[in-house]
Specification:
Layout (H helix, E strand, L loop, with lengths): L4 E3 L2 E3 L3 E3 L8 H9 L5 E7 H9 L10 H7 L12 H14 L4 E6 L8 H8 L4 E5 L11 H18 L4 E5 L6 H11 L3 E4 L7 E3 L4 E3 L10 H11 L6 E4 L6 H10 L3 E4 L1 H6 L3 H16 L4 H4 L11 H17 L1
Parallel strand pairs: 3-12, 4-5, 5-6, 6-7, 7-8, 8-11, 11-12
Antiparallel strand pairs: 1-2, 9-10
Helix pairs in contact: 6-7, 8-9, 9-11
This protein binds flavin mononucleotide (FMN).
Length: about 325
């Protein structure tokens, strides 16, 4: 059985990729990911705020030492809390590239089309095989309409495609009214891949202290369902390749993501929970399942349960919703 796949134009031995996480911050854990069989490695992110602080001492054009902005900017971590400064990140990327043979995807994380994006070129020069840009934003300004957010993301992709020769993937949130149209806009802007979806780290409320508490819990398979829906809707209808991220907990979750339409399956929580060796478990299970189902290759498998052949995807979604509610009553 042939488990090889193409993601962002990169030929991978199989779809299971180590997603962006602290596992890429140290050379020895990067090597462990490759030894464990990761098909590619996405680096942890370099953040827009980190870059602008290092370059100009400002975050979003505001000086944290200015009393007018100090309170608003206080929650941002100080430079020394990041695992690498921007310069160190590039040096680390070079070392990672020297240390492993699998494709290395660098990661930029931010929301504006501004000068920090020059780091994309520096990452390309440092040897990155591709760039993943993570657009993580919660829009709390009530004056900003959805279309303005969509335009900003599209402009970032346009700018990156203008600057870079390497492929560009965009890691996105699911919170758009019409995600299919967003995907199409990014396709038109030249994105080579869509990574769906960002997990939002939603603060919890501490009722004892009466305060908001940041919380980061590792994901569970239940989070995958939202990804499966959109992989299935997008499959075959946009040009960029598709990566699943969020909720790949078991080998069956990996199969589901590919059957829905994923070219690549990114894993973080499962690797933090079980260690990098879990990639081999995923790969072995995929091979066994393909043999059992007599499916020869990824092209035959990918999108087998997508909505590509559905005459009306919206009607399908609506009908399924109504059926699900009815099933509860019977
Ligand atoms: C500890 C930790 C650190 C992460 N760091 C990054 C990061 O630097 N950049 C990024 O784009 N995503 C980052 N992520 C998000 C993951 O790449 C991934 O999208 C998310 O965890 C969902 O995948 P999972 O269900 O396999 O964990 C991080 C996740 C965790 C748990």
């Amino acid at each position: 059985m042939d488990t090889s796949t193409t993601y962002l134009g990169l030929r991978l031995a199989h779809p299971f990729v180590a997603g962006a996480s602290p596992l890429s911050s140290h050379l020895d854990s990067v090597k462990r990911l490759e030894d464990a069989g990761a098909a590619a490695i996405v680096m942890h992110s370099l953040f827009e705020e980190q870059i602008t602080m290092a370059e100009s001492g400002r975050i979003r054009h505001r000086d944290p030492l200015d009393s007018e902005f100090a309170a608003a900017l206080a929650p941002f971590p100080p430079a020394e809390e990041y695992s690498h400064s921007p310069e160190q990140y590039l040096q680390h990327l070079r070392s990672v590239k020297e240390a492993v043979h699998v494709p290395v995807i660098a990661s930029l994380n931010g929301t504006t089309r501004e000068s920090w994006l020059k780091y994309a070129q520096l990452m390309e020069e440092a040897g990155a095989d591709a760039l993943e840009v993570n657009y993580y934003e919660v829009t709390t300004d009530f004056e900003v309409p959805g279309v303005a957010v969509e335009t900003r993301i599209r402009d970032i992709v346009t700018e990156l495609k203008r600057r870079l020769k390497i492929p560009v993937a965009v890691k996105l949130s699911p919170f758009f009214t019409a995600f299919g149209n967003v995907a199409r806009q990014l396709d038109a802007a030249g994105a080579d891949g869509l990574v769906i979806f960002n997990r939002f780290y939603q603060p919890d409320v501490d009722v004892r202290r009466i305060s908001a508490e940041p919380s980061l819990e590792l994901s569970r398979g239940s989070e995958l369902l939202l990804r499966l829906r959109w992989l299935a809707i997008l499959h075959g209808r946009v040009r960029p390749s598709l990566a699943a991220t969020g909720g790949i907990e078991t080998p069956n979750d990996g199969l589901k993501a590919i059957l829905a339409g994923a070219h690549a399956v990114q894993m973080v929580s499962a690797l933090l929970r079980h260690g990098p060796g879990f990639i081999q478990t995923m790969r072995d299970s995929l091979g066994r399942w393909m043999e059992w189902q007599k499916i020869p290759d990824m092209d035959s498998m990918r999108g087998a349960v997508s909505l590509l052949k559905s005459p009306d995807a919206a009607a399908f979604e609506r009908a399924n919703y109504i059926r699900a509610l009815h099933r509860w009553n019977t």
